[in-house]
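Aggregate trends can hide what the representation actually does to any particular protein. This step matters because it turns folding into a mapping between discrete strings. For completeness, the protein is quoted in full, as a sequence line and a line of structure tokens:
=====
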Amino acid sequence: MKPVLSLLAFALFGLSGLGLAHTAASQNSPGNQNLPAQGFARNVTVYVSDFALDAQDVKVDQGGILGEVRPGILERPRKRKQHDPEAQAEKLVDLMSQSIVKDLQKAGYSSERLAAGDARPASGAWVHGVFTEVDEGNRVHRAIIGFGSGETKMTLFVSLTDLTKPEKPLYDQSTTDTSGKKLGAVITMNPYVAAAKFVMEKNAPEKTVKKTASEISTNLVAQLRAHEIN
């Protein structure tokens, strides 16, 4: 499915931590008035963190006849890499991060990937995001990859932050999660953090993932250039 850029993205994307614009909520909050305009230097390093995505916990049959498939159970480990939800989620996240980094480098920016667990640098531009889906009760969850899990589509929220400025988290995770096995953790998007929104199918082919990454990169470059300082 062709990735769709939210109509709100152009107004919100890339402004987190810059003091250039705020959501309606942040404009009326104490301490957020009269902030000086900030921006990024042309030679800024852009760090791309792996976007958050959950995977369904599916057990793999460790016994039985080679190649045997039992109802509700994945195939033996020799074929696990093709079907394991965790492997699928890891591949999608990996491809997205690598594609964005390459796109930014092609645009002339120094860009590096921050893998899970990597410490964030003290300065630079930070790209981070989360794959989400909504349940019947209109609650937002981290999207989950797995057989028969949730919706076929997921929404990706992406934010650009100045690492030299304190920032709030893109989302908060519920401490009383009752999402069940077919949905990821319940989260609440932070209204104080600006983010762009994209929509993509969970089982999107590689070319679609790369195309979505390209849409994200195009907007990142536009924001970096719009807020460029000497």
In short: Residues 4-26+39-59+76-229 form one domain.
